[in-house]
Amino acid sequence: MKPVKIGLIGFGTIGAGVVRILQKNRQNIVDRLGTAVEVVCVADLDIKTPRGVEVDQNILTTNAYDVVNHPEVDVVVELIGGYEPARDLILKAFEHGKHVVTANKALLAKHGDELFAAAEKHKVNLGFEAAVGGAIPIIRSIREAFVANRIEAIEGIVNGTANYILSKMSDEDLDFELVLKEAQEKGFAEADPTFDVEGIDSAHKIAILSRLSFGTSVNFDDIYIQGISCITPVDIKCAREFGFRIKLLAVSKFDGKELDIRVHPAMIPESKPMANVNGVLNAIMVRDDLMEENVLVGHGAGSLPTGSAVVGDIVEIARNILSGASGRVPAQSFQTHSVKKIPLKPTREIEGEYFLRFLVQDKPGVLSKISGILGRHEISIESMIQRGRDMDGKGVPLVMMTHQAKEKNIQQALKEIEQLDVVCEKTVLIRVER
């Protein structure tokens, strides 16, 4: 049986990992697939730097369109990231009748409608397991394993950098900036960590998971996003006293009418499995009408975990090629005619419990002023912690946990509270997800 031939666009960390896996486990793949997978073209702007894997120098090129136009390539693997030229390269590959595997979550979150439609038009496969959760087979699970289940919610720790930072802060009582610097030195965080620590990367991923879970197109710009740079050791200590751990959580819930989708730091009860997923690990919880909650945990990034997900997609597509069964499983999980527009629930209408940390002057009557404003906005206090005395004139932390309240009431109350002359800085708000 003739081998399935792939072309690689992007020969960085993940691309080198893909080649390493294909070489190291070549026979294992042949035994499972029935034929070999061969790399026949590799494109990267830098084809001189050693990658730690041996490839034929004759298959290297600096022109990505050489891969797309290569007559022998069956599957194009796009690993360069970003919007352009990745989008154009994938569309050109489809036009040439080539299947595509990508790890490009940002592109799928922003241009998923166009890419899914093009793949269907040209009757080719689009694989993107590596776009969310690295080695965790969450996309394949949603598209196939949970096909009979009506998913109600999906929540996840889907950024290893943010999880590493929060875990380290929690375990060693360290400041955000110090841990971020350490994460960068260890290679867990990029030189510019904005996408990771400000929740943008997680938002790309929850947009994709929402599409697959609920059969709807999500406008990425409508997702509420808040990062972790505001979290301090004080917040983490207080969370622990209340019985919670703080995680950057991507949330998507469907109540049958509206989709509640957001990314933000969340207080999770210590008894929950998600609260105990630490370091660079990812975890994704799926709740449905048949099995209640399932939690998948694994490595969400890195050369080999992500490369493993890419190779899994390559082999799945190779099976389709060998059997002549393109499009056997819809790329977007739902049949195109069943994809519908679900309105997003406005953030102000969300209801939940809240952790509030005020920095206030150490004066009599401060608590009554703040609690009075909260009460006028129908917000009741469940518990409270006041930290120490003001020894340096900078204020003291006043921490509260609320009962169920509406987000719009919380925001209105905080706006009023922050106008008080006894409040020293902007309030820290962390939502509770039980």
Automatic annotation (TrEMBL):
Pathway: Amino-acid biosynthesis; L-threonine biosynthesis; L-threonine from L-aspartate: step 3/5; Amino-acid biosynthesis; L-methionine biosynthesis via de novo pathway; L-homoserine from L-aspartate: step 3/3. NADP(+) binds at I9, G10, F11, G12, T13, I14, G15, A16. L-homoserine binds at E190. One of its GO terms (molecular function) is metal ion binding. One of its GO terms (biological process) is threonine biosynthetic process. It comes from the Bacteria. Keywords: Amino-acid biosynthesis, Metal-binding, Methionine biosynthesis, NAD, NADP, Oxidoreductase, Threonine biosynthesis. NADPH binds at K105. Residues 355-431 form the ACT domain. The keyword Oxidoreductase applies. Belongs to the homoserine dehydrogenase family. This is Homoserine dehydrogenase. It comes from Nitrospina gracilis (strain 3/211).
